[in-house]
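Support request, please re-run this one:
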Amino acid sequence: MEDAAGPDTEVQTVSSSVSSPVPRTPDAELKKLLSFKVYKRRWFVLLVLCLLNCSNATLWLTFAPVADQSAKFLGASLEQINWLSLVYMVVAIPLSFGTTWMLDTLGLRTTLILGAWLNMAGALLRFLGAFVQKGPAFPLKYLLVMCGQTLGALAQPLIIFAPTKMAALWFPEHQRAIANTMASMSNPLGILVASLSSPLIAETPERIPYLLLVYAVPACIICVLATVGMRSSSPPTPPSASADSSSSEPFFKGIKLLLTNRAYLVLLLCFGSGIAVFTCFSTLLEQILCVQGYTNTFAGVCGALFIVSGIVGAILLGVYVDKTKRFIEATKINMSLSALSCIAFSVVALMQQQKVAVAVVCSLFGFFGFSIYPVAMELSVECSYPVGEATSAGLVFVSGQIQSVLYIVLLQALTKRLADSPLSTCGDAVLSWKADDTLCAEFVDWDLDTWTRDVIGLKQEKQLSAPQRRRFNLCRRKSFSAFVASKRDECQDQGSPSWRCCGETFKHHSAFHKHAARTHKAEIGRLTQTTYERLLSCLQEEAEAQQLDEREAEPADVSTWIPETAHISEEQLRKGPGKVLLYYRYCQVEDPHVICAWQKALCEKLHLTGKVRLATEGINGTVGGTNTATRLYMDAMRAHPLFKMEEEDFKTSEGGAECFKDMTVGVYKEIVPMGMDPDVLSYQLAGVHLEPEEFHEEVQALLAEGDVGNDTVLLDCRNFYESRIGQFTQCLAPSIRKFSYFPDYVDQNLDLFRDKKVLMYCTGGIRCERGSAYLRSKDVCKEVYQLKGGIHKYLERFPEGFYRGKLFVFDERYAISSNDDVISDCRYCGCPWDRYQLCSTEFCCQLVLSCPACRRDGRTACCPTCRTKGGASHRREECECTDGRPRIPQDA
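Re-run finished. Output below.
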C-alpha cells in the first residue's frame, strides 16, 4: 500500500477560513471525507483496459475483412472462416455469468490479468498455427487458428465487462462517466481498426502470417503491462464516498435483487433492445443498402461513420454527464433521438442515389444511439446499488446479446423479399426475391414429366399446349428456386452457401435439391400451382385490356406508308441476290400497335422475313429479302416521319429471306430484352457515341499502352457464344448467356469499372445504348463510350482492324466474316473451328462448335449429357453447357 502522502496521490481536502481551532475529536463523517483520495495510477489502469479491449476486438474481426485471402491461406471454406468470428458470440453468452462472478468476487486485477493472458495466448497460437506446413497435417493449421480465436473469445467477457467496475473503483464521481466511456468505446475502436487494417496488410493470402504477427505484438505488450502494472484491484484509499461504501452483495443474492428492481428491469429491457438494434444494424447494413444499388464500399463507409460518430458522441456525452450528473435525462433524450434516427434511416435507405442523406443519417444514428452505451451502463450501476457493478452491467450486455439473436431471426422471417431490382447490387441478398438460376440448373434428377403429372394430373398435363408447358416449366423452376433461397443460411458467406432445412445443414447444391424434391415435393407443387394460376390470371387480364384498347382504337390507315410496287414484278421481290438489314431507332412511339400493323403489311407485301420488335421506346429489326425488297423497305422506313432514319442507320450484309424461317412482328416492353423498365432506365442516359474511326483510335491507343493502360476497359456487351468466335483484341468479354444478365454482371463486378474509362461495343449498337446507360447509372466510371453502329459499321470501315474472327448474327447463318482469323476451337478435338450448329438433341437449344471430322464420328451434341441421349426427345432445355457455367461470372 502506498503512502497516503506519496507523489501518486491527489489528496481531496476540506479547507476552512475559520480561525478557531478544530475540535480534538472531529466528526467521523468529516474524517472520512478528508481521507478520500484519487491516484494518478488510475489513468494507467484505464489505459491498460482500453488497450486490452481494443486488442481483443482486433483479434475478433481479424479475418472477416479478408475472408477470401484467409480461406485460401488456411485451406478452409468461407463458412469455416466465418466461424472464426462467430465463436466470440457463441462463447460470450454462457461465460457472461461467470465473468460477473469473477469481477465481484476475485476482483478487477485478477480478471484483467487473466483476460490479458488469454488474449495474448490466443494471438500467439494463431500466429504459430500459420506456420504449420501443408500436407497430411494441413487441416491442423485451421484448427490451431480456431483454438487461438477461442482463447480470445474466452478473454472477451473478462475484458468487456470491466469498464463499469474499473470506473467505480478508481475514479471519483465527476470522472466516472468519462472513464467508463473511454474504456467501453475502445472496443468499437478496435473493430474499426481491424476493418481498415486487415485489408491493407493482407492484400494476398501469403501475407496472412504477417497480419497475425501485427495483431500479436500489441497483445503481448499489453499482457506485460497488465501483469506488471496492475498491482491491486482497487486503490489503497477509495476515490469517493460511493466507492467507499460499494461493498457489493453476494452474486446470487445480487441477481435476485436485480430481478426485483423495477427501474433496473426497465433499463435491462430497453437498453438491451438498443444493443440488439445496433447489432442488427451492423449485421444487415450491407444487405439493406445493396437493394437500392449502393456498393459494399459505401456500406463500409456508412458503418465506419456509425462507429466514429458514436465514439465522438460518447466522449461528448460522457463529459456532459460528468459535469451535470443528469444520467436519466441524457439517457431518455438520446434514446428518443436514436429512435428518430432509426426511423430516418428506414426512410432514406429506400431511396436511390442518396449517398449524402444515407451517410448523414448513419452518422446521426451512431452519434445519438451508440454514444449512450457507456452512460446507460453507468446508469445500470447507479440504479442497482448495492449489487456489484459487473453483475448489473453484465446482465444488460447479456440481454442485448440474446435480443440480438431474436431480432435477427425475426427480421429474416418477416422481411419481404423484393422482386428483381434493376439497381440492386445484392446478388442473392436477403431483401431480394432474385434467386440464381444455377440453383435449378444443378438439379438434374428432377424429371419434369413425372413431377408435372404428380402436381396437375396426367389428363391436365396432356392438355397443356407447348407455350403453356413452357410457362408452367418457368413457374416450376422459379418456385423451386424460391424455396431453395428461403432455406439458405443467411449467416454464411455468399461464396460458400449452405442451407438449413428439417434440422439438417446442407453444404452442396445437389444434396439440398434432392432433399427438397423428395421431402417437400407437395409444398413446392402447391407453390408452383399457385404461381402458375397467378401467371395465367395476369396474362388473361393483359389480353383483355389489350383487346379493349384495340376495340376502342379506331382502325388506322397504314396504306399511305406502303410503297407502290406496281412497277416491280413479283420475281424481283421473291428471287435474286439479297441482303439482310439490321437497324434500330430509339424514339417516342405513342401507339406501337399501329406501327406493328404497318410493319406486318409492309413486310408481307415485300416478302421479307426476320423479326421486328416494337415498343413505346422505339423499333428494333432485322429483315432479309432480295436487293429490291430491302431497298424498298429502307425507303419506306426513311420516309416515315416518326423514325427520321438515314441510310447509314442500316447495317447490311449478304443474305436474303432464306436466312430466317418466317416474319415476326410484335409489341414488347423493350426493343432489346434487358429485363428493365424503359421508364426506369431511359436510353437517353446512354454513353458518348464514337464513330468507327474514333473507336479504332481509342483501341489502338489502348493496345499501344499494353499493361500500362489499366485505366481503360474495352467491354464486349454480347453473349458468350458471340464473343467466343469473334472479339476485339484485349477486350473484357463477360461469360453471360443473355443480355438480360448484363445488369447483374455489372453489379457484381463494379470494381472492374471503378474510376475507369469504358469503351463498349456490340453487334449493331442497340445493346450498348441500354448497357451504357445502366453502367453510367452506377456512377463508378470516369467515362463511358460506345461504338456507334456496332461491329457491323466498324467492319465496313476496318475489315482488317482490331476485331478478329467471325461476327455472330441471329439468323440461320450464325456468323459472317470479314477476315480469315479463327479464334475458337472445336469442342471435342480442339482444332481451330468457328462455325456453329445446333445441338443434335431434340429440344436442346445450345449451339455447338464441332469440326467436320468430329461430326463424322457422331459428336454432334453440345455436351456429354446430350450426347448420351442421342436424338431422343426430352423436355430439358438446359444441360451441362449451362450447369457448369456460373450464371453471373465474378471477374472483378
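The chain has a mean pLDDT of 77. The chain is about 55% helix and 10% strand.
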